[in-house]
Amino acid sequence: xxxxxxxxxxxxxxxxxxxxxxxxxxxxxxxxxxxxxxxxxxxxxxxxxxxxxxxxxxxxxxxxxxxxxxxxxxxxxxxxxxxxxxxxxxxxxxxxxxxxxxxxxxxxxxxxxxxxxxxxxxxxxxxxxxxxxxxxxxxxxxxxxxxxxxxxxxxxxxxxxxxxxxxxxxxxxxxxxxxxxxxxxxxxxxxxxxxxxxxxxxxxxxxxxxxxxxxxxxxxxxxxxxxxxxxxxxxxxxxxxxxxxxxxxxxxxxxxxxxxxxxxxxxxxxxxxxxxxxxxxxxxxxxxxxxxxxxxxxxxxxxxxxxxxxxxxxxxxxxxxxxxxxxxxxxxxxxxxxxxxxxxxxxxxxxxxxxx
Amino acid sequence: xxxxxxxxxxxxxxxxxxxxxxxxxxxxxxxxxxxxxxxxxxxxxxxxxxxxxxxxxxxxxxxxxxxxxxxxxxxxxxxxxxxxxxxxxxxxxxxxxxxxxxxxxxxxxxxxxxxxxxxxxxxxxxxxxxxxxxxxxxxxxxxxxxxxxxxxxxxxxxxxxxxxxxxxxxxxxxxxxxxxxxxxxxxxxxxxxxxxxxxxxxxxxxxxxxxxxxxxxxxxxxxxxxxxxxxxxxxxxxxxxxxxxxxxxxxxxxxxxxxxxxxxxxxxxxxxxxxxxxxxxxxxxxxxxxxxxxxxxxxxxxxxxxxxxxxxxxxxxxxxxxxxxxxxxxxxxxxxxxxxxxxxxxxxxxxxxxxxxxxxxxxxxxxxxxxxxxxxxxxxxxxxxxxxxxxxxxxxxxxxxxxxxxxxxxxxxxxxxxxxxxxxxxxxxxxxxxxxxxxxxxxxxxxxxxxxxxxxxxxxxxxxxxxxxxxxxxxxxxxxxxxxxxxxxxxxxxxxxxxxxxxxxxxxxxxxxxxxxxxxxxxxxxxxxxxxxxxxxxxxxxxxxxxxxxxxxxx
Lengths: 356, 555
What we know:
The structure holds 2 protein chains of 2 kinds.
Chain A: H1 12-19, H2 21-39, H3 44-63, H4 65-70, H5 80-95, H6 100-127, H7 133-154, E1 174-176, E2 191-193, E3 196-198, H8 200-217, H9 220-230, H10 232-237, H11 242-268, E4 270-272, H12 280-290, H13 300-325, H14 330-347
Antiparallel strand pairs in A: 1-4, 2-3
Helix pairs in contact in A: 2-13, 3-8, 3-11, 3-12, 3-13, 5-6, 5-11, 6-11, 9-11, 12-13, 12-14, 13-14
Chain B: H1 2-5, H2 11-18, E1 26-37, E2 40-51, E3 55-59, H3 66-73, H4 77-80, E4 86-91, E5 94-96, H5 101-107, E6 109-112, H6 124-128, E7 135-136, H7 139-144, E8 150-151, H8 153-166, H9 182-195, E9 201-205, H10 213-228, E10 232-236, H11 240-246, E11 249-254, E12 257-263, H12 269-277, E13 300-309, E14 316-324, E15 328-332, H13 339-346, E16 352-358, E17 361-363, H14 368-373, E18 376-379, H15 383-387, H16 394-406, E19 410-413, E20 416-419, H17 421-434, H18 451-464, E21 469-473, H19 481-498, E22 501-505, H20 509-515, E23 518-523, E24 526-531, H21 537-544
Parallel strand pairs in B: 3-10, 3-11, 6-9, 9-10, 15-22, 15-23, 18-21, 21-22
Antiparallel strand pairs in B: 1-2, 1-4, 4-5, 7-8, 11-12, 13-14, 13-16, 16-17, 19-20, 23-24
Helix pairs in contact in B: 8-9, 9-10, 12-21, 16-17, 16-18
């Protein structure tokens, strides 16, 4: 392919290629929406704050896709397993009457432990259904979320903040975290810049997770996992135990999902139980795919870019759409965008063929 | 007659017809057919003529161009998608232009495939009549048209029965194909072709490869019977005795050229074997200096004892042999005879039984990690499927096995085994220089490299492990001619300069003879014998086709 250099020395075609057309189009669309939002006199500062918060709270859930994709099990459609682990951990912290950062970190620690146990079992399942991980994962997620509805009803929690006010049995659909760990990360070291509130703690936490992931991918284990995901037959011929490293990827992904939902909840301010986790995997999968990942290859950068674009689009598009069409389309747009993106990624001819 | 009409007739064929009446009609004539794949000439001026009602055999090594010739005859898309071919095909006295398999079928050319094209869940009758079903009218079809006609099982059964009877097969025609022995499946394939009413020429593509002796004999009888009924047969096979037994004329193909076209009466197994193998390449100029390999001073570095490997299509059925320290041992044989299974079994890629002993120590089989830990390295014949991570960088490919098996390029940091990326890049740069990989740098994706350079990446990966014994399978498959030589020279250099023992498995006998000290020939999963590279073409040909029971060891 001929690559022309512009006068400034920038290699524009190469830049376009490395970013990919979908991301350029989305970015252009986003900028156009921003301009339109300004024209409509919407509060830009608030919009930007909102984008940063949503980016930070969703980032870890999207990051959870990396180990599963890298280990060859594809995007983790069964991340809802991790999510319910995180929810159990969070409810436990409330039950134990913890507050503030202590409550948050307790929830994170417990969710990681639960996540690794559940992830291990889930990984064993995935090793038996090679090639169909995405379908099996989706339905495993659906089943487990439904099963957990029973758990939420039957669990012997006593905290009056969580159980139904009238009956005294079973947990509420939505539990407020107001007196627990609502926004403990968001407000940690937070500051204002030109009308934009920076959720410093949240972003730092995400950065630490990314750094840990970055290091992990550069360990011997991470390398083996990457080899297993790229070509299981190659890995086997190099003496690598394929099933073991697929298991590692699934455990890691589930743990990140569990931790991710705790971070999500502290920012959102509520725990959403029962059927709320049902469709969360799709938004996470869509995010990383928007970032340019395929079902066989994903990087941390793609996860971050994807999360940012996806969330920013939602934050900006909704008020603009509401203003323009005067109707609440938020959920509809979210679903169209995420499912459309998944469809696009799954139908790309990349699997097996030549890249680009 | 054709010979006189066609200005470019093949002189060899003309000589043959010269003695006969000129009015003998050829059913199929292939004239001056040449074919190139991306500048790589695979067929050069091939001429072939099959007389009506005669059996004509086509013999040649793997890669001699037989399949390409058949693909041309059947108008396969692979031919037309790669620029077509030059030359002419005449069928039944007319020049024909076969653009698709359907055209070939309409002309009355049938093919019995090497791989079965049968639907397991269907009965024999249904398979024979697939897409040519006989139908009869029923009430619905009279009202709604021919699409609604029902199957006429009675007449379909009768036809199938007749076809099976021709082949001497007593099996019930309503049995499902699934579960039939392979020999029967092959017969069902043939029955399907026989059942086609207009069939005038049948191509048998190595039909006896999967058959037992008795089944093969039945098949040969069936071929004779068909020929008597006026069907011409083009018989492709490696079994030279069958060729002599059944055919009237024989064409030998080698490297895409017709090297001989002779009558069966004039041929012997030895002569055919010699013609088939030929000597194609001169020795790699590095000179074979055997380093104490011959004589009594040689040392056994690896011993295989009664090795069985369950590799589909390349099964090994009990091989015992020894590899000497510092030699280049070749393993040759025709495709499907099991030569590829040996290395794959030793390296733990396919389930194996038996014992592998390296320098007195038993190597655990069915365990890739153990083979690698014992200093065995492997370049797979399936480079893109097993040998490489196509979507990873060159340096990742080179280093990954060493990192995993030997903890190379690993530095421990607080108990975490981190990868030393700097050391990997440095090592990759050195390797790129040493084995001369043409690339933009260590970070380039392996997918973007040419076949030859991909093979060099595989070699670099194996070298990084510093193996004592390197197994190399089909080192030049899918590599262009110039790069082939470079790869072979590299192997010789490793042997000479590093003293590495190398076991090369290759379908190309010529390249084995160019670089090896000894060549083991595998036939039907067993060791047929070990020859010196200087042994005659005849000896190689006979051993590869299993025609020579006596074994000869080189000392």
